[in-house]
Amino acid sequence: MSKIKDRLSKFQDIIRGSNDHHATQEVTLVAVSKTKPEEDLMEAYETGHRDFGENKIQEMTTKSESLPKDIRWHMIGHTQRNKVKYMAPYVHLIHSVDSPRLLKEINKQAAKNDRVIDCLLQVHIAEESSKYGFDEQELIQLMEDELFKEYQHVQIKGLMGMATFTDDEEQVRKEFKSLKAMFDRVKDRGLLDRRHDFTELSMGMTGDYEIALEEGSTMLRIGSAIFGARD
Fold it and tell me: pTM value?
């Protein structure tokens, strides 16, 4: 068995165990394939894996054109509004919606493609100022906005967050805990109408996925632990 298949299989076992443990909510593994060649993705694909994450729209679009059409493409990187049109025809889930203006553009491009695009709202939970995202007040303002309520071509599936890049596990746990608590509070306020299936919490990467799972993540974004270090 190749290294990629081996590592993927290990993570699928972890996810399976987690799914058995948390019967209420399935956990999805997104294999982060950014900068990796198409042959590496095909190795993962041949194991039955279908969820792949990219952080550059151009690279994801090129891959989507030549790889199998049943792949579910996840946009996990910071998204520029002027590039949304390139992924609107095919993207499965955008994890990184970090502003009202970006959401407006996604809705517009989804309408042009006669689609409803699934989105996660990115929340700023890290101590690093370089990370993007909403705070809780901004999330609530967005959901209460009359303009937002008119968007028929986006579906808000949940929240995404990235913890501080640190070896301090308590710090990471504190940040994930705060994101889960925010997710629960926003959900309980009932600001979203029923067509928004607000169930996903995307948190956890190669360095902190174990803590993320313990704190309630429903979606892991794993790159180097599957595909090896980036070039």
Answer: 0.95
